[in-house]
Design brief:
Blueprint (H helix, E strand, L loop, with lengths): L2 H5 L7 H34 L1 H37 L3 H27 L2 H7 L7 H30 L3 H25 L4 H20 L18 H75 L2 H35 L6 H14 L3 H16 L3 H20 L2 H5 L7 H20 L10
Helix pairs in contact: 2-3, 2-7, 2-9, 3-4, 3-6, 3-9, 4-6, 5-6, 6-7, 6-8, 7-8, 9-10, 9-11, 9-12, 9-13, 10-11, 10-12, 12-13, 12-15, 13-15
Length: 450
């Protein structure tokens, strides 16, 4: 068996086996990373209290934006990389890889340094008040200085997965997750330190994950190789175009967090922000799981697109859409049944915080019934180069429609209606996607999916 076959099982395996080959490592890795984020919240909430937890949550969009930057060029570059490999253009693929990693590292350093000069007004712009600002600033400033570690780890994980090694990408996420929990436990419970040190612990954990990923370059299956490059403006534009929906998705997470923090602060004060912080940590777990499904679909679809294997694409998408719906339905049921214990594990909060958070989980989890399907469909359009469609799906569900519902419903029906902005936006977008698929006569499998 040649090296090409070893590196690309996409050419020989059955679709169901191939999907599981990518799905299981992606889901396991993302779920462990999500649990890691939740455990971080649990430890901060129990050790430092609800105000510190709210401060960390307020600073969260900075982390999200940095991840978004890595996804913008990472997913964009990896999509072009896989399409080039599907066309058997190995040298072009290696150039795309090197070019993408270089731009990601330099771009993150530049943006982080610039934002650090404006860190104080930035904290308040993210929704902090006098109580939460010290915690938010302490956490945020560390990420502004060392966020490039996250972007490089995330981008390397994407390319390693696209290079036919999803298991190693999962191992890196497992390493990051477990080391982060261990390091932050020592910081909080052994050394009795605070939020700033928690941020440093998270950076160190990401660096350890990056070390694991680097081992891929020494394996026989690796097609990734750093080559000499110079700035290729058309390539950069193409990568930015292909990766824009992923970047917009991360921006959407920040818009979601900031807008909900502001709305809860306005209508329910610190109690509302603390309750939303609990939901936001739980939502991070679910979101990463759906992102794992997208991460499983993207390398396969991109490769099939480059190889002109259109029937295989349709078979894959039919399977992925069903999986997305089933996973979302399971998440919905968990939210209805286990809302109270989920809230309780984040700390002994006042009853008003608990009550608001429990209601929030039960209402918000309605979104998961359709969110998985929306994620899979957005990833499909992005992976085949239909960037406009992928962009309006992302903008609609995470920014435009979400803000429309958020800025109207609470003033008509009260603070609890804040929780419904995302579920209604997800449902509305799925309806629009179905209409688009029918009008475009796009089929997944022998029969139309919708």
């Amino acid at each position: 068996m040649g090296k090409e076959e070893l590196a690309n099982p996409l050419e020989t395996e059955k679709i169901s086996k191939l999907f599981l080959r990518y799905l299981i490592p992606s889901l396991v890795g993302m779920l462990l990373m999500a649990v890691n984020l939740a455990v971080d919240g649990i430890m901060v909430g129990n050790r430092l209290g609800p105000v510190a937890l709210a401060g960390v949550n307020i600073a969260g969009p900075v982390y999200t934006i940095f991840v978004g930057l890595s996804l913008w060029l990472g997913i964009g570059g990896a999509t072009l990389y896989s399409q080039a490999m599907g066309r058997k253009e190995k040298k072009r693929a290696q150039f795309i890889f090197t070019h993408s990693i270089l731009l990601i590292g330099l771009g993150t350093l530049a943006i982080g340094g610039l934002a650090l000069f404006f860190h104080e007004p930035l904290v308040y712009a993210l929704g902090a008040n006098e109580e939460t600002a010290p915690f938010a600033a302490a956490y945020m400033n560390v990420f502004l200085l060392f966020g490039f570690v996250f972007t490089l780890e995330n981008a390397a994980s994407i390319f390693v997965r696209n290079d036919g090694n999803p298991t190693l990408a999962m191992a890196a996420l497992v390493t990051t997750a477990f080391s982060n929990v261990g390091i932050n436990y020592m910081i909080l419970y052994v050394f009795d330190l605070g939020v700033r040190e928690i941020a440093f612990g998270t950076i160190i954990a990401a660096f350890l994950g990056l070390l694991v990923l680097s081992s891929h370059f020494f394996t026989k299956r690796s097609q990734l190789k750093f080559v000499r490059v110079k700035l290729d403006v058309p390539l950069a534009k193409q990568a930015l175009t292909f990766g824009f929906p992923s970047f917009l998705a991360e921006v959407g997470i920040s818009v979601f967090t900031v807008s909900h923090n502001i709305m809860f602060a306005r209508l329910a004060g610190t109690v509302g922000v603390a309750a939303f912080s609990v939901l936001n940590y739980v939502h991070g777990v679910m979101l990463l799981m759906f992102l794992g499904m997208g991460a499983a679909v993207q390398p396969i679809v991109s490769y099939f697109q480059g190889a002109n294997e259109h029937e295989k694409k349709r078979q894959l998408m039919r399977l992925a859409i069903r999986t997305g719906f089933i996973v979302g339905a399971v998440c919905f049921v968990i939210g209805q049944v286990a809302a109270v214990p989920i809230v309780n594990i984040f700390g002994d909060f006042p009853e008003e915080v608990k009550d608001l958070a429990v209601t929030g989980i039960r209402l918000f989890f309605v979104a998961y019934l359709v969110m998985g399907v929306n994620f899979v469909l957005m990833t499909y359009f992005q992976s085949i180069g239909e960037v406009k469609v992928a962009t309006w799906i992302t903008a609609g569900r995470q920014i435009v429609l979400m803000l429309v519902f958020l800025l109207t419903l609470p003033f008509l029906f009260g603070v609890q209606a804040i929780w419904l902005a995302i579920p209604l936006a997800e449902l509305a977008v799925l309806c629009l996607i179905i209409i688009y698929l029918k009008r475009s006569k796009i089929r997944f499998g022998e029969r139309r999916m919708f």
